[in-house]
């Protein structure tokens, strides 16, 4: 009797001390995420030394070397065999010598200038593009979506022709939440989809009609992203199945084209959102030509692994893109786009998280992959490459947590999950957020299609449940309106500009640190949980996940 009692006591005491030590060990790791450390890493990554971290440049060499050194110093294993790198084979296309965009019909012809009126490029690896007298067909939103019983290409043959397309999806103007996703943009609304669908339909070229509200950004953003070099992942067919030319026209140019066609622009736009919409031949023809300088390039995803203690062959991914736009010599004054917030902050957090996990005496149960991806700014290419060439089996990967641009405005009561409610992984974030007395909100402007604009989207596309955290807006000191105003001001003045720089005196790090702790604990719980969370019913990614988990 006495013996069994003491045995019982020993067990109780040891469970207690064990749990206590475990908890202390865990708290210690959380507390190791410190303002000064993350500050220091952001400052280094966004310094001029790194030349704006452009893929396939000296800036890349310096950046990936730094990341490799850091992962090594922290004590993480190489994530790709004995290497910290996953090479991403790319093509760089720099288009130049654009002709005017000529539009004509039997009566008249008009020509429009590159940059001011239109932009265009190609993803085909060919040096000369010349399109002559291609017929224009207005295909409304250019969407084929069986689940919404919608087909803008129904009854019209666009092979060899140029399609004119409205950006976003019909739900945007309609506003009815049961129609597409209401105001919330579906992937059908994204410009990348417009180009993909037009190619599937066999169109020769595409012109997207720009609109500030529907696109979610001003014409200037379109101009910037189509005037420099562009990257594409190397493909066996050299992208010859893509359209010959992908372009955008400004809203006022679109208006002129519709006038030339004898159409009422406003009326046509609203008819495009109606269920009885039918594509229309505009009886106009288009001619344009330009040249392309094509070079094979290589860039790198940086990848490090931290083995788990129990489910070693199962994985959690933390992901952040290391790249930004590099140096733009056409700018006057400061020419380096340092990308301090976008995304030195997320990359610094990745390192900070790696350090915190490494400091655990008893490691988390699943293994963790720290993935710093390239070419996010040029079409989410590094994450696409990883998703299509995963080093760790996707059906053994529980989820991916993405970080892209952290909070610099101070502590908030809330934290954003972009695409909140789509996957069961959100519950892990909810639990942790609640523990800190905070709450989760969905992205505030889903009509901007934020969900399709960072790396997590590529992981979602191959079925991985994802959590993409964003900053909160319920600022403890200043409230919501102030934060929204500050965020919009920041986007207007600094987004993708040389002024996205490290500003020690202006930034607040306390909110950022609290967010990173939530990233840590959410990931930790995902590493230790028994069963894999899935996508929720009704999301397009659930079927993909289900079929790989069979
Ligand atoms: Zn970014």
Question: For the record, what is the CATH homologous superfamily label of the largest domain?
Answer: Zn peptidases
Query: What is the percentage of strand-forming residues?
Result: 15-25%
What percent of residues adopt helix (DSSP H or I)? 25-40%
Q: What radius of gyration results from the CA coordinates?
A: 25 Å
Query: What structural category characterises the helix and strand content?
Result: alpha/beta
* Main sheet overview: 17 strands, mixed
Hetero ligands: zinc ion
| Uncertain residue ranges | none
DSSP, total strands: 21
Shape assignment: globular
CATH class call of the largest domain: Alpha Beta
Q: Ends: how far apart?
A: 51 Å
Q: What is the CATH architecture annotation of the largest domain?
A: 3-Layer(aba) Sandwich
Query: Mean pLDDT, as a whole number?
Result: 93
In the CATH hierarchy, the third-tier topology of the largest domain is known as Aminopeptidase
Distinct helical segment count: 16
Number of domains: 2
Walkthrough of the structure:
By secondary structure, the chain is α/β, with parallel strands linked by helices. The chain folds into two domains: 224 residues, Aminopeptidase; 202 residues, Glucose Oxidase, domain 1, CATH 3.50.30. It is built from 16 helices and 21 strands. It has a 17-stranded mixed β-sheet that branches. A two-stranded antiparallel ribbon has the order 7-8. Strands 15-16 form a two-stranded antiparallel ribbon. Helix 3 runs parallel beside helix 10 and helix 10 packs across helix 15. The model has no long low-confidence stretch (mean pLDDT 93). The chain binds zinc ion.
């Amino acid at each position: 009797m006495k013996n069994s009692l003491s045995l019982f006591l020993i067990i109780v005491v040891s469970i207690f001390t064990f749990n206590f030590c475990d908890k202390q060990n865990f708290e210690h790791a959380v507390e190791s995420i410190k303002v000064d450390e993350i500050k220091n890493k952001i400052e280094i990554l966004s310094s001029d030394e790194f030349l704006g971290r452009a893929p396939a440049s000296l800036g890349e060499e310096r950046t990936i070397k730094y990341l490799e050194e850091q992962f090594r110093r922290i004590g993480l294993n190489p994530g790709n065999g004995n290497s910290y790198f996953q090479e991403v084979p790319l093509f760089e296309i720099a288009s130049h010598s654009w002709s005017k965009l000529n539009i004509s019909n039997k009566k008249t012809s008009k020509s429009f200038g590159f940059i001011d009126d239109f932009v265009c490029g190609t993803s085909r690896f060919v040096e000369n593009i010349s399109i002559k007298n291609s017929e224009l067909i207005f295909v409304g939103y250019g969407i084929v979506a069986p689940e919404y019983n919608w087909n803008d290409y129904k009854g019209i043959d666009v092979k060899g022709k140029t399609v004119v397309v409205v950006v976003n999806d019909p739900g945007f103007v309609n506003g009815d939440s049961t129609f597409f996703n209401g105001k919330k943009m579906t992937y059908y609304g994204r410009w990348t989809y417009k180009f993909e669908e037009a190619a599937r339909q066999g169109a020769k070229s595409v012109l997207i009609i720009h609109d500030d509200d529907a696109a979610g950004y001003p014409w200037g953003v379109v101009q910037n992203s189509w005037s420099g070099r562009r990257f594409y992942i190397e493909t066996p067919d050299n992208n010859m199945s893509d359209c010959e030319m992908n372009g955008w026209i400004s809203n006022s140019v679109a208006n002129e084209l519709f006038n030339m066609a004898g159409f009422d622009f406003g009326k046509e736009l609203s008819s495009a959102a109606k269920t009885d919409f039918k594509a229309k031949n505009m009886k106009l023809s288009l001619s344009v030509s330009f040249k392309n300088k094509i070079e094979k390039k290589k860039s790198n995803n940086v990848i490090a692994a931290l083995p788990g203690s129990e489910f070693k062959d199962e994985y959690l991914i933390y992901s952040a893109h290391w790249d930004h736009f590099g140096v733009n010599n056409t700018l006057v004054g400061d020419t380096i786009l340092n990308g301090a917030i976008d995304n030195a902050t997320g990359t610094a957090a990745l390192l900070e998280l790696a350090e915190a996990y490494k400091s655990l005496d008893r490691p988390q149960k699943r293994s963790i992959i720290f993935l710093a991806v390239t070419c996010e700014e040029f079409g989410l290419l590094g994450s696409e490459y990883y998703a299509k060439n995963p080093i760790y089996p996707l059906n053994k990967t529980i989820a991916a947590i993405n970080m892209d641009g952290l909070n610099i405005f101070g502590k908030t009561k809330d934290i954003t999950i972009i695409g909140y409610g789509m996957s069961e992984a959100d519950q892990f974030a909810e639990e942790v957020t609640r523990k800190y007395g905070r709450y989760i909100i969905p992205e505030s402007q889903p009509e901007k299609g934020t969900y399709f604009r960072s790396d997590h989207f590529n992981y979602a596309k191959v079925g991985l449940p994802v959590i993409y955290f964003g900053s909160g807006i319920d600022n403890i000191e200043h409230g919501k309106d102030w934060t929204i105003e500050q965020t919009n001001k920041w986007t207007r003045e600094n987004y993708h500009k040389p002024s996205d720089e490290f500003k020690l005196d202006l930034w607040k790090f306390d909110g950022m640190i609290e967010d990173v702790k939530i990233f840590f604990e959410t990931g930790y719980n995902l590493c230790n949980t028994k069963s894999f969370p899935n996508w929720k019913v009704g999301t397009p990614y659930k079927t993909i996940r289900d079929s790989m988990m069979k």
